[in-house]
Write a structure and sequence with these properties.
Radius of gyration: 28 Å
Number of helices: 28
Largest sheet: 8 strands, parallel
Bound molecules: glutamine, zinc ion
Number of strands: 22
CATH topology of one domain: TIM Barrel
CATH architecture of one domain: Alpha-Beta Barrel
């Protein structure tokens, strides 16, 4: 016997049933009738997911991976630890209260949200204070276990482990050390384990992805304490005795990286099994085959839970066969991590090119791959020969397909020299050329790219996509929107304009549709947070742009005005980060291919008279590896990709970049190394805290720290924005300071954008004027040196 399991299954539904049920429930005002519908949808999804796992041939179905909003929040609810500021009674938390935690209510803002390790899934951040206690929480998990058992399934429960739950939380109200809460939290987990034991659950998978991080020693010590406490027999009973009252066996599940540096610690923990990720960190298998006790379960995550490629069963079998020989049934076969991060079922993709489709596996198919591997280990590959043959054929085709391999792209990538990764002249020289060309005022005003995506814009795009609107009518409709957006910007008095991105559904998908080597699925949705899903494009082959992708729109916008219009591109790292990426070459190489396509695009834009080009890299920070020792390598190739994309233009073409969604304080040197002429960067949400980093780090080029938070419908006024500009001037000299919002405006309405941008332009003018007057008095020189101007700016304002 070799046990087959997955670490978790997507909960959103093959057709996003959970999304639609949630949104209907919220729209209906969370009434009891609507709640009933939502609960029924949840039940149906769980039953369908378990059935899919059983039909695939898995030995256990996973219970506990379902959540109405987020699995971290659901775990908090289970152990009675939701944030106390809401004043809810933890042990009788209602579904409506659960959603209030997730989404906020009249009295309290929502819990914060941030990325789950290095994925694009966002969890709700636990809030811990000295007063936090844990204890009995909701019964949902136990009900779900009963539900699965009633449907005849063999149940393995998956829970976010106590260390990870603490690690991911934020300490507030003077809590010095989250670990101080560990004893109370462990007591709550023990109670959960006892109740699961009473229900007859054999195995509990404790998800502890934190082991893939760089952990402080105190947390490693805490791991010993935690698992020693959890593994204690609860009601006596010798090792191995059957029956109730004993805690379930514990499978400690790691994922997202190499945990072999902790092999000694992990091996010493009194758990019954360990799961390791062999997709992210294949080499750690050897370490654990040596270190992990022979009698304990070793679960090998060999089917990729983070990507959509079909498993190469021959290769996986070859890797596991030797382990199986030595360990027999103590070898489990699994997915590398939960399947939360991949779409549900490839069967929904009826329109995808059949050759490409054949290379893919979504969650349902991956569950089957796991089962096939376990069967092959147990009874020989001949018993599942057809599935091995199909996998072999797909792997063979991927190695040679002309859809994937484009000699021209490979030649271009090889021909790149270091010169291609640098602008011709240093920034100061470029800045002079650009000043001469554009003649912008001090504190130039601009926006980040998109303007409101109105229902009319969406309708036009949908009609075109579905063939109800012809090419020419579509072109004219989009041009009308561009005309409108340009007219608006002229009216606000902005200095640098944009075309508004009406033609783009999404900043990555738009390019994915036009680039060779990319494919777009119809239903490849994965949960981003709550009811929100994303549909990442697939990068399956060498990336090549057969023709310019943005020039027509940008050039049209430029034809409407004498002010400069910025061309708008999505950067190579962001395209990579927000797509499913090919696994047959390093990510760095794929990034470079995208960069080459973008380089040609910048040159085409330049040739069409577009003098400023913005290359957005909002995802640069989130691509940073979990382990510090891998940061330098990532940043080196990521920066190089950006520079290859942006360095093919003349000195007087101004390259902009934009970043948001992350805290950038720790990668400022890499951001400076991009050598963009101008960066617009999100700072409003932290109230310009990021700027403090510029106290020590002297950002060399031009920068627009944001003065308008577009994530809120609130319209900031002139005073507020002028105040933020003045704050920025204390760190950044006026010659290098821009004024802009913190992101694109596509989610806003025009009636919010109108007053906000008018006020922003007004604020810039006001500060400009004060600066001008102060300078008349101080008669400053016009050099580009930072420090002295920063002080003058400050003096002018103070
Ligand atoms: N240019 C894009 C926009 O304005 C940038 C979006 C982003 O940073 N996420 O929408
Ligand atoms: Zn942004």
């Amino acid at each position: 016997m070799s046990t087959a399991h997955v670490l978790g299954f997507p909960r959103i539904g093959a057709h996003r049933e959970l999304k639609f049920a949630l949104e209907a429930y919220w729209r209906a005002g969370m009434t009891p009738a609507a709640e009933h519908d939502l609960i029924e949808t949840g039940r149906a999804l769980r039953l369908a997911n378990w059935r899919a796992q059983r039909d695939a041939g898995l030995d256990y179905v996973t219970v506990g991976d379902f959540a109405f909003y987020d699995h971290v929040l659901s775990t908090l609810a289970l152990v009675g630890g939701p944030p106390q500021r809401f004043g809810f009674a933890a042990h009788e938390l209602t579904l409506a209260q659960y959603f209030a935690l997730a989404r906020g209510n009249a009295d309290q803002p929502a819990m914060e949200m941030t990325k789950w390790f290095d994925t694009n899934y966002h969890y709700l951040v636990p809030e811990y204070s000295p007063a936090t206690t844990f204890g009995d929480g909701v019964n949902w998990l136990f009900d779900e276990v009963a539900e699965a058992q009633a449907a005849g399934h063999r149940v393995k429960v998956a829970l976010v482990g106590p260390l990870t739950l603490l690690w991911l939380g934020k300490a507030r109200d003077g809590l010095a050390d989250r670990l101080a809460l560990l004893p109370s939290l462990l007591a709550a987990y023990r109670r959960v384990l006892e109740r699961l034991a009473e229900q007859g659950v054999e195995w509990v998978q404790m998800d502890e992805p934190l082991f893939a991080l760089d952990l402080p020693p105190a947390w490693l010590a805490a791991a010993r304490e935690a698992y020693a406490t959890l593994a204690l027999e609860s009601t006596g009973g010798a090792e191995g005795t059957e029956g109730r009252g004993q805690t379930p066996r514990l499978l400690l599940a790691t994922c997202f990286g190499d945990v072999s540096e902790h092999a000694g610690l992990l091996t010493s923990l009194p758990v019954d099994g360990l799961h390791i990720d062999l997709v992210r960190a294949p080499a750690q298998l050897d370490a654990f085959v040596r270190a992990w006790p022979a009698g304990k379960v070793l679960s090998c995550g060999i089917v990729d839970g983070r990507n959509v490629w079909r498993n190469d069963l021959d290769a996986s079998f070859a890797r596991l066969a030797a382990v199986h020989e030595a360990r027999g049934e103590a070898l489990w076969v699994g997915t590398s991590c939960s399947l939360l991060h991949v779409p549900v079922d490839l069967a929904s993709e009826t329109k995808l090119d059949p050759e490409l489709r054949d290379w893919l596996a979504f969650a349902t198919q991956k569950a089957r791959e796991v089962a096939v591997l376990a069967t092959a280990l147990q009874r020989g590959p001949a018993t599942v020969a057809a599935e091995f043959e199909a996998s072999r054929a797909a792997a063979q085709a991927r190695r040679t397909s002309t859809r994937i391999h484009n000699p021209l792209v490979k030649r271009r990538a090889e021909a790149l020299t270091d010169n291609d990764a640098h602008r011709t002249s240093p920034y100061a020289q470029r800045a002079a050329a650009q000043r001469a060309r554009f003649g912008l005022p001090l504190l130039p005003t601009t926006t980040i790219g998109s303007f409101p995506q109105t229902p009319a814009i969406r309708a036009a795009r949908a009609a075109y996509r579905e063939g109800r609107l012809g090419h020419l009518d579509y072109l004219e409709a989009m041009r009308e929107h561009i005309r409108f957006a340009v007219g608006k910007q002229i009216g606000y008095g902005l200095d640098v304009l944009v075309h508004g991105e009406a033609e783009r559904n999404d900043m990555v998908e738009y390019f994915g549709e036009l680039l060779w080597g990319f494919a777009i699925t119809d239903h490849g949705w994965v949960q981003s947070y709550g009811s929100r899903c994303v549909k990442p494009p697939l990068i399956y082959g060498d990336v090549y742009a057969p023709e310019p992708m943005t020039v027509g729109w940008a050039a049209f916008a430029q034809s409407l005005t004498d002010k400069p219009v910025k061309g708008m591109l999505t950067g190579p790292v962001t395209m990579l980060q927000w797509s499913f990426v090919r696994d047959d070459q390093p990510r760095a190489q794929t990034a470079l291919q995208i960069a080459l396509a973008l380089r040609l695009e910048t040159q085409a834009l330049e040739g069409a008279g577009i003098g400023m080009i913005q290359i957005d890299e909002p995802a640069l920070r989130e691509g940073l590896p979990l382990k510090a020792r891998e940061h330098a390598d990532y940043l080196a190739w990521a920066v190089r990709a950006f520079k290859v994309a942006s360095s093919g233009v003349a000195d007087d073409t101004q390259i902009h970049t934009h970043m948001c969604y992350s805290e950038f304080g720790d990668i400022l040197p890499a951001i400076a190394a991009l050598d963009a002429d101008v960066i617009s960067i999100e700072t409003t949400r932290s109230n310009m805290e990021l700027l403090d980093a510029f106290e020590t780090f002297n950002y060399p080029n031009e920068i627009g720290p944001s003065v308008y938070d577009i994530h809120s419908p609130r319209v900031p006024d002139t005073n507020e924005m002028a105040g933020l500009i003045e704050r920025a001037l204390r760190r950044i000299p006026a010659e290098r300071l821009w004024v802009n919002p913190d992101c694109g405006l596509k989610t806003r309405d025009w009636d919010q954008v109108d007053p906000a941008l008018r006020a922003m332009v007004e604020a810039a003018k006001r500060v400009r004027k004060a600066l001008g007057e102060a300078r008349k008095i101080a008669r400053p020189s016009m050099t580009d040196k930072g420090g002295c101007h920063a002080k003058q700016g400050k003096a002018a304002i103070a």
